[in-house]
Specification:
Length: 165
C-alpha cells in the first residue's frame, strides 16, 4: 500500500462523510483515482463500513447503558479464542469483542437500555457459556473521548493560544 492510499484511509477514518472531491484535493490525486482506491478498500474489507458517533447522553430518553466486560475463558483446542469470541459477538447486545493480554482473555463491549438489562445479559447469556470461566463488568459512567472525538467540547471554541508581540 502506498503513501497516498494510507492518507486516504486516514482521512476516511477521521471523517467517513468526507466528499471524494475534497479527499482528491487533499491527497493530490484525481477523483477517479480516489474513488477507485476507496472501492478497492471496500472490496478488500479494509474499510468495513461508515458510522456516525452520537453522544446519546444529549438525546433525552435514549441514554442507555454501556458496559465493558472482562471475560476469562478456556480456549477451544485447535481453535484458540476465535470460536469463543464468535459465540460471544453473535449476541445482539454485544457491540465489540477484543482479544486482550493480561489477566483476562476477552474484553466485551455491551449496550443495553438499563443496567438490569446488561446484568441479565451477563448472568443469563454470557456467563452460562461453557468456555467462560469468569467475568468482571465495568459500567461506563461518562464518556469523555471516543474514537478521537472529545465529548462535550464546543467545536467552535478556538483553543489556540493567543500570540502577542
Amino acid at each position: 500500500m502506498d503513501k497516498k492510499e494510507i492518507e486516504i484511509l486516514e482521512l476516511l477514518e477521521k471523517n467517513g462523510r468526507m466528499n471524494v472531491h475534497m479527499i482528491a484535493r487533499m491527497v493530490e490525486l484525481s477523483v477517479d483515482e480516489v474513488d477507485a482506491a476507496i472501492s478497492k478498500f471496500e472490496q478488500m474489507q479494509i474499510v468495513h463500513g461508515y458510522s456516525t458517533l452520537i453522544d446519546w447522553t444529549e438525546v433525552r430518553g435514549h441514554e442507555g447503558v454501556t458496559a465493558m466486560i472482562d471475560v476469562k475463558v478456556t480456549p477451544i483446542r485447535g481453535k484458540g479464542f476465535d470460536d469463543v469470541a464468535e459465540r460471544i459477538y453473535r449476541f445482539p447486545e454485544v457491540k465489540a469483542v477484543y482479544l486482550m493480554s493480561g489477566a483476562y482473555d476477552l474484553s466485551v463491549s455491551v449496550e443495553g437500555k438499563t443496567m438490569s438489562q446488561v446484568a441479565r445479559f451477563v448472568s443469563e447469556k454470557l456467563s452460562t457459556l461453557d468456555t467462560v470461566i469468569s467475568t468482571t463488568t465495568h459500567f461506563i459512567l461518562k464518556k469523555y473521548k471516543h474514537d478521537g472525538i472529545i465529548f462535550g467540547e464546543d467545536d467552535n471554541n478556538d483553543r489556540r493560544m493567543p500570540v502577542s508581540p
